[in-house]
Amino acid sequence: MIGKTIDQLKVGDSAQFAKTVSESDVYMYAGITGDFNPAHINEAYAEKTFFKTRIAHGMLTAGFISAILANQLPGPGTIYVKQELKFLAPVRIGDTVTAKVEIIALDTEKNRAKLKTTCENQEGTQILDGEAMISPPKAPKK
Predict the structure, then answer these.
(1) In this predicted model, what pLDDT tens digit does every residue of 86-129 receive, in sequence order?
(2) Where are the beta strands (DSSP E) in the chain?
(3) DSSP 20-31
């Protein structure tokens, strides 16, 4: 199975993915990446920070965008080429993050799509804003 090819995409196409961030998500991400910043894994330390509690890794949140690109839009076979991100608000353990992507430009000659990428929490607060460039899968040769 492959995702949508460049010819099947159109400006305005969108998709989203939501997930509640658990404590185990934060610890697994720290273990996989080696990012053991105490703001993420040490509650006693985090209580003394601006956020007053542990927060999830920003790149964990950004990973939800990757999930959409890989599984939904365009889907399997998509190559992630570039991502620009602005982290606007923290994600706390227990927050439900909704990631959204929307195609804003297509370059059929180069097989590239530009997408607006955002994430917001359960209260509707935007926590991440950015743009991605992807290469959609190519149609199988017959």
Answers:
(1) 999 999 999 999 999 999 999 999 999 999 999 999 999 999 99
(2) 14-20, 79-87, 96-107, 112-120, 126-135
(3) EPPHHHHHHHHH
Longest dimension (CA), the chain: 61
For 15, phi then psi, to 5°, come to -155, 160
d(CA 3, CA 142): 17
- Dump pLDDT digits (tens) for 25-62: 999 999 999 999 999 999 999 999 999 999 999 999 99
Sign, Cα dihedral of 9, 60, 100, 81: negative
Q: Output the CA–CA distances (angstroms, integers) from residue 14 to 23, 33, 63, 68, 131, in the order listed.
A: 29, 29, 17, 10, 13
Domains in the chain, please, with CATH? 6-22+55-135 (3.10.129.10)
Give yes or no for a contact between 83 and 130, defined as CB atoms under 8 angstroms apart. Answer: yes
Taking CA 92 as the corner, what is the angle to CA 99 and CA 46, rounded to the nearest 5 degrees?
145
